[in-house]
Amino acid sequence: MTTLLKARRGRHKVFIGMAPGVGKTYRMLQEGQQLHSEGLDVVIGLLETHGRQETRQQAQGLELVAPRQLDYNGVVLSEVDIEAILQRQPQLVLIDELAHTNAPGSEHEKRYQDVELLLAAGLDVYSTVNIQHLESLNDLVARITGVIVRERIPDRLLEEADEVVVVDVTPETLEERLREGRIYALDKVPQALTNFFRRHHLVALRELALRSVADSIEEQAAGTRTGAISVRERVLVCLSTHPQSIRLLRRAARLSGAMDARLYVLFVADPQRFLTKAEVLQLETCDRLCGMFEGAFLRVESTDVVGAIVKVATEQRVTQVVIGESPTSRRLWWWQRPLTDRLLQRLRGQGIDLHIISFPGDHPDSELDD
C-alpha cells in the first residue's frame, strides 16, 4: 500500500450524538458543503445514509471516493478505500460511523484505524460516532439500555480529537423523527420505541453525551493552560485518623451525590509519624468505602498539611473542600483553629467552597454501615 506522508498530522473533528438519528451525518455533510463552497477540496470517504433521503440530498455535489467492495459470505460490503484517498490527496475527508467494524479482508479491523492512518498522512478528517460506542461507557450504557454495544472505540480518539461537536436534539424530537420513519423503516419503529429508544434511555444517553464531551474538553483545557476552570463539580474531603473520619467521608459522599460531582478523598500523612494499627485499619476502611462511592483515594506525605490540601485541590480542579471539626474541643481534628483561616486564605479567589462539618460527639465509628 502506498502511504503519502506529510509533515503535519491532519486535524480530526468528531460529530457525536446520543443515538442514531440526531443528525450527526447531516451536520458533518452540511459543514463539508460549506467548506467546499469556500474552495476547500472536500471528498466523502464513506457515507452511511441508512436510506435517509435528507442525508442523501445533503451529500449532493460532494465528490465520493468510491469505496472498496469486499465479498463476505456472498454479501458485498463497502469499506473505506484508503489507497484511493491517499492517491487523491484531498484537503478534507468525510467518514461516517467511526466505530464500524470493517469486513474481513480489510487492511484494518476497525474504521477508526483507517481514520488514524489518514490523519497520520496529513489529511484532515471529519467523522461521526454515537456516545454508546465509547469503550469506557460500555458497561454503563448496558445498564441504562440493556443493550451490549459490540462496536466500540478507544476513549483516546475523543481525547485526541482537535474538535468535538455534540449534535443534540431533545428526546421528544428524536421520538418524532423515529415515528415519521426518518431514522428507521416504519416497520421497525415499534420495536425501537420499546427497546433502545425508550424515553428514559434517551434522557440518560443525552446527559451522558453532553457530560462526556464537557469532561473531555475540560481535560484538554487543563493540559494546555494553568488556572483551567472546572465545568463539573468536584468534592475533596480531607480525612485524618480521628474516629469520626468515616462519618465525614459519608457526609462528603452525600454532598457529592447531591451535586452529581466527582469525589476525591485525601489523607495527608506526616512522614515523621508512624500510624498505629488501629489508625491503619481505619484508613483501609475509608479506602474501601471510597471505592464503594466510586471516589478516588489519595494519600500524600507532607508536613505542610494546608499546602498539600491546596495543591491537590488545584491539581484536581476541586470546587468543594470538606473538612471536619470536633465541637467538644472546638478545634480541627488535625490542627488548631488557625487552619481554617490559613486554608480560606490560600483558597481565596480560586472559586473553591470550604465546608467545615461538625458532629455531636467524638464517638468511634469504624463500621461500614452507619
TrEMBL record:
Transmembrane segments: none annotated. The keyword Signal does not apply. One of its GO terms (molecular function) is phosphorelay sensor kinase activity. It holds the Pfam family KdpD. Coiled coil: none annotated. Keywords: Kinase, Transferase, Two-component regulatory system. The keyword Metal-binding does not apply. GO terms for cellular component: cytoplasm; plasma membrane. Residues 8-217 form the Signal transduction histidine kinase osmosensitive K+ channel sensor N-terminal domain. This is Potassium-transporting ATPase D chain. The lineage of its organism: Bacteria, Bacillati, Cyanobacteriota, Cyanophyceae, Synechococcales.
